[in-house]
């Protein structure tokens, strides 16, 4: 099985802990995993596709962000093109994306992100692409989830400095 992973949003501010046994399982099943660079740009532009082997992803969890290079642009249903006069217009390139996905021999797409990324994934699914959506957002605004990966990171990052600024309690003698 060949699995493609895309991540549209910006880099996260700090790493997230993953279960140590989770990552290597795919390789033992004979699955091949690929990362689409800079969201969907890797399939629709020159950014390309990266093979994600256990050796390439080992030891990266402390880095934060993503090795794929992410973007919060690049919606294939509203792809921005600029004509010779410099005028920007939006075109639907979803069929181009599906053709590139199929030409690459992928069996499934894992899309990671917030409500916008998951909406694009759902629209691609409706066009016949096999998609799995993984909610990850600091906004925690994905319907059907209590808390997402990014939300926990945002809360931890925001509350850490504020609790360290709290003055110590005063001790008074009786």
Properties at a glance:
globular, alpha/beta, 6 helices, two-stranded antiparallel ribbon, 29% helix, 5-stranded mixed β-sheet
Outline of the structure:
This protein is 29% helix and 19% strand. By secondary structure, the protein is of the alpha/beta class.
Sheet with the most strands? Answer: 5 strands, mixed
The order of strands across the largest sheet is 3-2-1-6-7
Please estimate the helix content. Answer: 25-40%
What would the principal axes of the Cα set say about the shape?
globular
Number of strand segments: 7
Count of helix runs? 6
Write down the secondary-structure element order.
EHEHEHEEHEHEH
Distance between the termini: 72 Å
User: Oligomeric status of the shown chains?
Assistant: single chain
- Mean pLDDT, to the nearest integer, reads 76
What is the radius of gyration? 20 Å
Strand percentage lies at 15-25%
Class by SSE composition:
alpha/beta
Give the low-pLDDT segments.
10-23
Word description of this protein:
Helices cover 29% and strands 19% of the residues. The chain has helices spanning 25-28, 41-44, 54-57, 94-103, 115-126, 149-164, and strands spanning 2-7, 32-36, 49-51, 79-82, 88-91, 108-113, 131-135. The strands form 2 sheets. Strands 3-2-1-6-7 form a 5-stranded mixed beta sheet. It has a two-stranded antiparallel sheet with strand order 4-5. Strand 6, helix 5 (115-126) and strand 7 form a beta-alpha-beta unit. The longest helix has 16 residues, at 149-164.
